[in-house]
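Intended use. Records like the one below are meant for learning the mapping from a protein sequence to its folded structure. Do not use them to infer anything beyond what is encoded.
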Amino acid sequence: MRKDIDANNQITHAENNAVLHQKKKKQPGYFQEMEAYIQALGNNKTYRPNVAAIILSSEYPESCKVFLAERLDMTSVWQFPQGGVDSGEELKDALFRELKEEIGTDELDIIAEYRGFVHYDFPKNLIHSMRPYDGQIQKYYLLKLRKHAKINLATGDKPEFSSYKFVDYDMVLDSVVGFKKDVYSKVLEYFKQEGYV
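Structure written out for the chain above:
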């Protein structure tokens, strides 16, 4: 009998790891970068690959207003649009797919992207509904809404947001949910230091 198959002809842990390793080889280049980032954390947690968008209004650069959306399932919880990356999907493809799904338009232009990745852990009151993940690892993009773009939050079968607003860049942290503030602060400061806002 093969060592990697048990008496019930089931694939064992060793063979399963070999299959997962083969799948990883087929992933885009960023996948290895994300894995290296997670390993460096050294906390044995599982993070969902994710993209996030900091959207500036069409008046940028004359005015620097940032798009925030209020979650439909949580009262007074404001955030940037974000979403999971499908297996084998390129990050920018995931970004524009998520924008179309969440805010009803992909009529935006990328201004810049964050230099690496960031992460956050789900709070205890949410983690049970987010299993098997403990948090999210994210790639952030800074984008500008095109002048003719139409935002429509009532998209798809399960809309994520109930309303939206544009706020001054320096006022974003006053509106967003607490467990994301550290990540938001880090990314917003990066784009500011790089001279984009």
